[in-house]
Specification:
The chain has 3 helices and no strands. It is mainly alpha-helical and 81 residues long.
């Protein structure tokens, strides 16, 4: 039960970031967008590791790494302002 709640929260974070982008409320250059994607990706990769699903581990791991790179890009841009 607890692991299902955690994995659902990760999925909700990723979906919310995507929906926010599609609805023009969030853009990839916004900190909340990147944080939601990173947190959701990390939660989901941990859930995938727990159930030993290699495809999901790869996908969610890549999602988390790409989101981390995006977060670094946004943070650098903010620091240069």
């Amino acid at each position: 039960m607890w692991s299902e709640v955690v994995s659902l929260s990760g999925a909700i974070l990723v979906i919310a970031a995507f929906a926010g982008n599609q609805l023009k409320r969030l853009t990839p250059d916004m900190l909340p967008y990147q944080l939601m994607n990173l947190a959701g990706g990390v939660i989901l990769v941990l859930a995938a590791i727990r159930v030993r699903e290699p495809g999901l581990i790869l996908m969610e791991g890549a999602w988390a790494v790409i989101s981390l790179l995006g977060l670094i890009r946004v943070a650098r841009r903010r620091a240069n302002r």
